[in-house]
Amino acid sequence: MVVRLDGKGQNFNNLNLEGINLEQPNLSEASNSLERTNLSSVSFVGTILNKANLQGVNLEKANLKQAKLNGTNLTKACLTGAIIEDWNIDKTTILSNVKCEFIFLKEHPDPNSGIQKRLPHPPNIFKSGDFEKIFIGERNIVQLLIRHEQNRQALTAAFEHLIRNNPDITPDDFREFRRIDDNVLVTIRVPQSTFEGVVEQEFEQVYQQVKQESPPNSRLGEFDNQPLFEFIIKLINTIGENMMSEKREINFHGNDSKYIENNGTYVERDYINMSQDLTKAASQIQDLIEQLQKRGKMVDVAQTQVAENIATQAKNDSTMKEKLTKWGQSLGDATVSDVVKGVVKLAIRSAGIPLP
């Protein structure tokens, strides 16, 4: 690799290559990609490449999962199709004039959908300068590139899910809304303990689900006619205002179980009794989801809301946490709907309980 400047398809996982110089000496005179240092499809999983000189290197389809690239010079490097899951870059990483049409945020496809998470979403590709603007190297942030042609009803559901499903992320954590041509780059600050990839993945899953369920040409009233930039800002502000005005509580202790809407009235009682087994509680979970849907909640938001409240109760009561753990252990044998199973799994994950 160093002598011949060719490591195509080879495995250099977990090596310490700090400071390595792989720049093609005659890069400034190179007329095509064949004269670049060829590291296409190379595997650098967990490799230390801090302060390396990778100027002009062909890293097309390279696997950079968990690679360390602090202070690395990637000027004019080709990264199209590269995998960057959990890579480590910072403000000293140089990304000037990187050539990249798209990258993969995950090494493997999602086990449920079979889709490998790509940015931007296909068939879109990065325009010149997009890559540097998005991956400039700030830590503890999530950046979402929102395209002007995306379904606004699905975007509304995805942003609402993102905020409600991550209690430590509030509308105040939306640090920047940047116009990139007709698109908008949304920068969100997340806590140190939050895995950025999970937030991005869940956002995309909710978006795709609601997009598929949305009727063709569905509209959102005043939101639909707004330019994308104004639409997103208005949407985040509206979600924040709604959260401030809401008062929701679910108490799961036996016959006193209740759900309180923001107007303070009891919707029903005995929704969920966690002292019973999951098969018996399933109908109560399903009923609560349906009640929330009747009050205007989208199905994914309703499911998330029920799961969050179950998780909150489990976090605050060790007995309820044990019950939730037992529910999780019975998922494989329980004759309950996929919706109920999904709510229980989400509640278990939100409560910090390892999935069985």
Features:
single chain; 356 residues; alpha+beta; Pectate Lyase C-like; Alpha-Beta Plaits; 3 domains; 3-stranded antiparallel β-sheet; 32% helix; globular
Q: Rg, please?
A: 24 Å
CATH class of the largest domain: Alpha Beta
The topology string of helices and strands comes to EEHEHEEHHEEEHHHH
What's the domain count? 3
Question: Architecture of the largest domain, according to CATH?
Answer: 2-Layer Sandwich
Summarize the topology.
Elements: E1 103-104, E2 118-119, H1 130-134, E3 141-146, H2 152-164, E4 174-180, E5 183-189, H3 196-213, H4 228-245, E6 249-251, E7 258-260, E8 266-269, H5 278-294, H6 299-316, H7 318-329, H8 338-350
Antiparallel strand pairs: 1-2, 3-5, 4-5, 6-7, 7-8
Describe the structure.
The chain is an alpha+beta fold. The chain folds into three domains: 1-104, E3 ubiquitin-protein ligase SopA (Pectate Lyase C-like); 140-245, Alpha-Beta Plaits (2-Layer Sandwich); 246-350, no CATH class. Helices cover 32% and strands 10% of the residues. The chain has eight helices and eight strands. It has helices spanning 130-134, 152-164, 196-213, 228-245, 278-294, 299-316, 318-329, 338-350; strands at 103-104, 118-119, 141-146, 174-180, 183-189, 249-251, 258-260, 266-269. Strands 3-5-4 form a three-stranded antiparallel beta sheet. A three-stranded antiparallel beta sheet has the order 6-7-8. Strands 1-2 form a two-stranded antiparallel ribbon. Residues 27-34 and 247-271 have low confidence and may be disordered.
